[in-house]
Amino acid sequence: MASNVNETNNANLTKPIRCIVKLGGAAITCKNELEKINEENLGIVSSQLRQTMVSSENFVSMDWSRIPGTSEIACNVDSFGDQLRFDASKFVIVHGAGSFGHFQASKSGVHKGGMDRPLVKAGFVATRISVTTLNLEIVRALARAGIPSIGMSPFSCGWSTSGRNIASADLPAVTKAIESGFIPVLHGDAVLDDLQGCTILSGDVIIRHLAAHLKPEYVVFLTDVFGVYDRPPTEPDAVLLKEIAVREDGSWSVMKPTLQGMNKQVEITVAAHDTTGGMVTKIAEAAMIAKLGIDVYIVKAATSHSLKALSGELRGNVPDDWLGTVIRFTR
């Protein structure tokens, strides 16, 4: 990332992290239903993350919230003994908003700035209420799966932008949480902007910034489709792009499969209410991460293919029957 970004204090880790995971908003929410979580997908994703992070098969829920319909707290302290160790691999999770936040942001124009306008200021508040609500529910789902997760909202942790580019980020707070044995869970957020007052900082941009500084072994984007296609995957004859090569200048080309026509255009669509750029932003940020020498896997969440990507099983050898997109740096 550019050297003019204000990083508070030293953000160095004693050991490199293993993986940064992006939970796509469309994969963990019902994107066409306002503020509705895809409980089934989120549950499977949480289970797969536990399998890849924690060495022990034994786990105890860390969500001690009140059990719905009762006055009891879901906590069994006797389950926590010296024999239960939380030997979690170093992961960082960043999630999108999906059906949370995008509606509020697009209706009020938060991404365009203008905090002096009452509608934008109200939209800023409404957007943050929505995305932090989702963040809490994701942290709770991970905690119920035995993952020591900690929600870290960018706005509250001092992230800000200037002209929609990251200007300040409290990375030491993230690294300190990692070193303390927690799994930080960040998210796309409404943040203050030095030039336009405010904007939306997308999860994909956050991941690129984290990858540049934390240098994970690999990055996984969990989405609602199997990967990157040459056109919207709902269209007939859409082709899954299995491998994309990124060059030094940031340009990229499809390596597998071979597309007919040298100038064949890859068509990407963006949902009308998506204020973060959708798949366009995802590919651009993934290409920037790959330029750092970090392999990026884009794969459908809650599948056997996503489990292989999360576990690191694909590093160096991607089997032909794996469904997903690998984005790699090539000279």
TrEMBL record:
InterPro entries per record: AceGlu_kinase-like_sf, Asp/Glu/Uridylate_kinase, Fosfomycin_R_FomA-type
All residue ranges annotated as the Aspartate/glutamate/uridylate kinase domain in the record: 18-299
EC number: 2.7.4.26
Catalysed reaction equations from the record: isopentenyl phosphate + ATP = isopentenyl diphosphate + ADP
Uppermost EC category: transferase
Alphabetical UniProt keywords: ATP-binding, Isoprene biosynthesis, Kinase, Nucleotide-binding, Transferase
Protein family (similarity comment): Belongs to the isopentenyl phosphate kinase family.
PANTHER family given in the database record: GLUTAMATE 5-KINASE, ISOPENTENYL PHOSPHATE KINASE
Descriptive protein name: Isopentenyl phosphate kinase
Organism of provenance: Xanthoceras sorbifolium
